[in-house]
Amino acid sequence: MPLVSGFKVSAPGSTMLMGEHAVLQGEVALVCAVDARIEVTLQPRSDRQVHIDSSLCQYQADLDKLTPQPALSFVLAAVLAYRKQLPSGFDLIIESGFSSTVGLGSSAAVTAAMVVALEHFAAIESTPLERFHSGLRIIHSVQEGRGSGADLAASLTGGIVCFSPSPLLIEPLQCLMG
């Protein structure tokens, strides 16, 4: 059993400032994290059960026999990606400060929160770039290879980000107010 106790992770939603369509063609975009966040609370269990409580649905399964649930596709894809490294099952509560229907990158935000939470739970140390690549693999597994990663970059980095998928550029920008 892990020494990790329950914990909470959050990630911001995001909005595109410029380049929403261009980034899909490999061009640069500006993407900005927003104040609304998705929070993931993980409580380790002593068994292999996974219980998820979300406004989208309730879910229960054995960690080694996860069943598909479309409403939780990004969450379950993240669990699948880390399953072999997880020390036990867990209870997961997902709370969102915004609706998944308003276009603020909820899929990227929940993926970012899940990557950070599952890496912490599994005691995996990674760099921000490694977390980005892990998150993008998860998004691509759900979206059949589609998705630039711009929203994910903003959810992992915060603030305003200059993003290019090829060559990869994730550059936080400084904003001077005055």
Describe the structure.
With 178 residues, the protein is α+β, with helices and mostly antiparallel strands. 28% of the residues lie in helices and 33% in strands. It is built from 4 helices and 7 strands, in the order ββββαβαααββ. It has helices spanning 73-82, 106-121, 128-142, 150-157; strands at residues 7-18, 29-44, 49-54, 58-62, 90-96, 160-165, 168-173. Strands 1, 2, 3, 4, 5, 6 and 7 form a 7-stranded mixed sheet that branches. Strand 6 and strand 7 form a beta hairpin. Helix 3 packs across helix 4. It is globular and about 50 Å long. The N and C termini lie far apart (52 Å). The mean pLDDT is 94.
Radius of gyration based on Cα positions: 16 Å
The stretches of 5 or more residues where confidence is low (pLDDT under 50) are none
- Average of pLDDT: 94
Question: What is the overall shape?
Answer: globular
Describe what is shown at a glance.
The chain is α+β, with helices and mostly antiparallel strands and 178 residues long. It is built from 4 helices and 7 strands.
